[in-house]
Amino acid sequence: EAYAGINKDGTARTQRGRVLIFIRLEPYVSRAEIANYMGIGINAACGRVKELLDSGLIIEDGRKQCRVTGHTAYALKPSKESL
Asked: Which of 18, 59, 68, 71 could make an SS bond with 32 (beta carbons 3.0 to 4.6 A apart)?
């Protein structure tokens, strides 16, 4: 129900666009870094990242040490199609 609600009211679309812009400006960013720097919950960041991955606008490109958690995480960057 919550997912349907954020899609219906436009929140997801707005967050999705903001997340895409952030990844374009900061390629090789982790999900936790997106959540931290954008001030959104990790669940929201992961949801928007999944949508962007599924649409082909971003890709996972290797792994990196996350600056937020200190753990190894997938690095996200824009796909060639989204540039």
From this structure: 68
- Cβ 68 vs Cβ 36: under 8 Å: yes
How do residues 8-45 score in pLDDT, each as one tens digit? 666 567 889 999 999 999 999 999 999 999 999 999 99
| Both structure tokens of 14 | 């707005």
How many alpha carbons fall within 13 Å on the CB side of residue 59?
A: 8
Could you give the count of Cα atoms lying within 13 Å of 11 in the half-sphere of its Cβ? 11
Q: 72: which strand partners?
A: 65
